[in-house]
UniProtKB/TrEMBL annotation:
Naturally occurring in which organism (per UniProt): Streptomyces yaizuensis
PANTHER family: ALDEHYDE DEHYDROGENASE-RELATED
Any matching Pfam family: Aldedh
Protein name: Aldehyde dehydrogenase family protein
Domain Aldehyde dehydrogenase stretches: 16-484
Residues of the signal peptide: none
Keywords from the UniProt entry: Oxidoreductase
Domain of life of the native organism: Bacteria
């Protein structure tokens, strides 16, 4: 970064607009240096962004699907071509490792624009079986035909999380635009600069003015103004359950559509006959990925007693050898958490776990770096279901291990949670693994894997969210269904 931190402007109605609230610094979690100055929108500017999206909706919703596909495909090409500078920015503002910023943030964003370029061309009409109608008070006999047609919802407020400033916004913007919606994007305050680069790429690709708008703020006022605006037809939110609950209350008063991807406390059920090295690799790499700041992490390990001690020892050994360091460093696996406040929150849970009587078998100390927000991966054993470290989402590189004896007990422990986003089952008995998976109250279950299928629906049960996205499910999420009926 040369010439001092870049001062960013808002993107409203296709124009770069000076923020009425000034700017605030975006901080590199590894160095505490200022990466750039993000704009502080006023509530009035947030409402102006909604108005711009409303004005653009009619023309954009009537744009031919082929044109929407062309623009999204062009955006994918631009993002891919600029992978290196975009990944450098993402690493600096989010603390992700270089490999993660390239492969899991920027590359995934490009892939999502490419995927929904195809999605814009997917059929939106579903023919329904005709019905023969007898004569009656409503008219004479006839055959009544019908179509179910998916229409764009309208203006979508996309409120995104800090743990992936490229893939998460792209996963909302791309399917919304593919269906003909317009969007107002309110990124997380910690790492919003990447989203402005995304807006630049979309504008360069040919997105008309007002179709994509980006407003930011360090506090909640901007997001609150967007969500409450009567011109917003749908809110797509990724973040904490606490914030999602407040947004849902506002949406309920206005009957706005919602797509909520909220918190998680994933259970990993490991049976005695599991492939232990595979389970260790899956759990160990996932609960520490992006310093544990992912909602899909298997942070509750429920281990059968015959394998329990070896699993705890294996997790402890793995946590100890994972390299914690600067995200740009070769071999770094675990970078910093997003902020000092979040580091302090994670450390408070480490202290709480000890106070609750759990045994800290690995990690938990603050690495001895001069600057930055660091937490070493931590493993707790001797845990019980009532402990707060077992029940609450920590959103850091912390895993807890609980023992079980029977399949029934394992399912009960897994279900004893407010959350239900993604769970995992490891067992050499595939029939049992699938049987158990079917009993877990979660939106997704990985059977002997932590991999994801990017066409599979993604979303949660209980307090982990409302609705499903990813693949063609996202196209359904960002549309309303209209019935067209005729008689012949």
């Amino acid at each position: 970064m040369t010439g001092g931190p870049r001062t960013q402007r808002l993107f409203i109605g296709g124009q770069w607009v000076e923020p009425q609230g000034g700017h605030y610094p975006v901080v590199d979690p590894a160095t505490e240096d200022t990466v750039g100055l993000a704009p502080e929108a006023s509530p009035a500017q947030a409402r102006a962004a909604v108005a711009a999206a409303q004005e653009a909706f009619g023309p954009w919703s009537r744009t031919r699907p082929e044109e929407r596909a062309r623009i999204l495909d062009a955006a994918a090409t631009i993002v891919h071509r600029r992978t290196e500078p975009y990944a450098e920015l993402a690493r600096a503002e989010s603390g992700a490792t270089t490999a993660t910023a390239r492969g899991m943030q920027v590359a995934v964003a490009a892939a999502r624009f490419k995927r929904y370029a195809r999605g814009a061309l997917e059929p939106v009409e579903e023919p329904l079986p005709p019905q023969v109608s007898d004569a009656g008070p409503m008219g004479g006999p006839g055959v009544v035909g019908a179509l179910a047609v998916r229409r764009p919802v309208g203006v979508v407020a996309c409120i995104t999380s800090y743990n992936n400033p490229w893939a998460n916004p792209a996963g909302k913007i791309a399917p919304a635009l593919a269906l003909g919606n317009t969007v107002v994007v309110k990124p997380a305050p910690q790492d919003p600069l990447s989203v402005y680069r995304m807006a630049e790429a979309l504008a360069e690709a040919g997105v008309p003015p007002g179709v994509v708008n980006v407003v930011t703020g360090a506090g909640p006022a901007v997001g609150e103004a967007v969500v409450a605006d009567g011109g917003v037809d749908m809110v797509s939110f990724t973040g904490s359950t606490a914030v999602g609950t407040r947004i849902a209350e506002v949406c309920g008063r206005g009957m706005k559509r919602q797509l909520m991807e909220l918190g998680g406390k994933g259970a990993a059920l490991v049976f005695d006959d599991a492939d232990l090295p595979a389970a260790l690799a899956g759990i160990g790499t996932t609960f520490t990925f992006y310093s544990g700041q992912i909602c899909t992490a298997p942070t509750r390990v429920i281990a059968q007693r015959g394998i329990h001690d070896r699993l705890v020892d294996g997790l402890a050994a793995l946590a100890a050898r994972l390299r914690v360091g600067h995200p740009a460093g070769r071999g770094t696996v675990v970078g910093p958490v997003i902020s000092a406040a979040h580091r302090d929150r994670v450390e408070s849970y480490l202290a709480l776990g000890r106070a609750e009587g759990a045994r800290l078998v690995a990690g938990g100390e603050r690495p001895a770096f001069d600057r930055g927000f660091w937490v070493a991966p931590a493993v707790f054993a001797d845990c019980s279901a009532g402990m707060r470290i077992v029940r609450e989402e920590i959103f850091g590189p912390v895993v807890v291990v609980l023992p079980f004896d029977t399949e029934e007990e394992a399912v009960a422990l897994a279900g004893d949670s407010d959350y239900g986003l993604v769970d995992y089952v490891w067992s050499g008995d595939v029939a049992r693994a699938f049987r158990v998976a079917g009993r877990l109250r979660s939106g997704g279950v990985g059977v002997n894997t932590v991999a994801r299928n990017m066409e599979a629906p993604f979303g949660g049960f209980r307090r982990s969210g409302v609705g499903r996205d990813v693949g063609s499910y996202a196209l359904r999420a960002y549309s309303e269904t209209q019935a067209i009926v005729w008689s012949g």
